[in-house]
Amino acid sequence: MNKGFTQKQKTFFNMVLITAAVYFGLKYILPLFVPFLAAYFLAWLIRPAVGFLHRRLKVPPAVGGAAAIFLVFAAVGTGLFWLGRMLIDQLTAFFANLPEYQEVLSEQIEGLCSGCDRIFRLPAGTAEAAMEENMRLVMENVQTEVIPVLSKQSLSVAIGAAGLLGILLIVVVSALLIVKDMEVYREKFRDSRFYREIHRVTDKLSKTGIAYLRTQGIIMLIIGTICTVGLLLIDNRYALLIGIGIALFDAFPVLGSGLILIPWAVIRLLARDIRSAVILVVMYVICQLVREVLEPKMLGDKIGIPPLGTMMAMYVGIKLFGVSGFLLGPVGLIILKTCFAEYGGDGAEGG
Questions:
Q1: Dihedral angle sign, alpha carbons of residues 213, 31, 246, 73
Q2: Which runs of E-coded beta strand occur in the chain?
């Protein structure tokens, strides 16, 4: 009886210690190593090109790594430049048509206010007067509170940008050092006494990361397509750009496409544009079904966790770590699951 009780105590304390270690590791230790993890990922990404240059052209790994990193940054920079140029073109078109949009917006607000007056049986003009007063208060708050705060934060933003450049430099230099001696680091890691335990966790984590990125990519592609097609059906001239924006917005936890599509549908409904409102609501429902069905299924199956467990891990991760918990929650659950199997049960019994 005493032995069985002791084994249960060991198992319980092992699980508590492992849980605490995983939490503090993800919360406080992981941020210190993020630049070097990014450097390892960059080194892993360019390693095939570096190996090819070294084998075929006898290019030193450091030189080949520098060339490969330059090409990666050039490709990413070109993509960002193209997206930025498209965004600037869209903004230019928007400001060029701003008087027209202001007139349309005024009509929409007037229709919305009239709809509110009819629904709540208020005297004509009541909702419009209330909205004008609220808009006046908002503009006063922006001028007296928001703008001064933004002015004070400009220095912090500049310092943060400089710090980001410094971190980027650390990532690039570290990636060059890693790709140069990657085999040496791997041999030292394999000779480590903790290789088996660490490799078991890291192997599952690498599969988790690939599964997560693939899942999010597929879901974002589907949602972006759904939104673009739906916006084309209501003759929106920015269908592709807004569809991509909604897909990106939907990928963030807590936010979701509903914060854009539902208010938009309500506005169109109050403006008596029933067709557009129905299409927007249908878009939202389909987007929700796609994410809620595919995400737990695709991600949960890949990492060996039931869909409900995946959703719970995401929720707990968001509560503990903020937005990054959307990824850290399932990652932490994988670490706990693996460590519990290694040390929480058999390991305790073996003691």
A1: negative
A2: none
